[in-house]
Amino acid sequence: xxxxxxxxxxxxxxxxxxxxxxxxxxxxxxxxxxxxxxxxxxxxxxxxxxxxxxxxxxxxxxxxxxxxxxxxxxxxxxxxxxxxxxxxxxxxxxxxxxxxxxxxxxxxxxxxxxxxxxxxxxxxxxxxxxxxxxxxxxxxxxxxxxxxxxxxxxxxxxxxxxxxxxxxxxxxxxxxxxxxxxxxxxxxxxxxxxxxxxxxxxxxxxxxxxxx
Length: 212
Description:
alpha/beta, 4-stranded parallel beta sheet, 3-stranded parallel beta sheet, 10 helices
């Protein structure tokens, strides 16, 4: 997919699974379970051991309708090597112009993380394709609606505080997509090897997103 198609796919699918794992060997069964449940966009954070190797392998083996992105990117160099490894998009927890510029030059979607209305608009003006509103659980849906009211042009992705059963409320409040970590990628289920629970979580999420 080209950059425009990737952004459109994210907005159509509406859900990005944020994966943080203690062991790189867990990625494949986790990704497979999420895909079977209907979640087709995965963000592999740079905090995962061997993240770049995982991205390379995932991009090579993933179904054609699955996106593999990178998260927790804190500098332009990391963005560059992640895209070189095959990442379809780049997510950062912060607004850093060097990251935005680097990813734009690589012709991939970039999603910097912002917290306040000023940070959000600054990120957008700097070239963000979608702004990751983080941590969204502290801000809440009312804040989200309040930001979108005077700035409806923004494409936002709340992350943190989005659950399997309230994801649609964030979309209704104006989100272009939602990012989910522990509520979707259940650490306890992974530790127990219960990957079927992840599939069920994904199915619940997709059902929630499609109920309106």
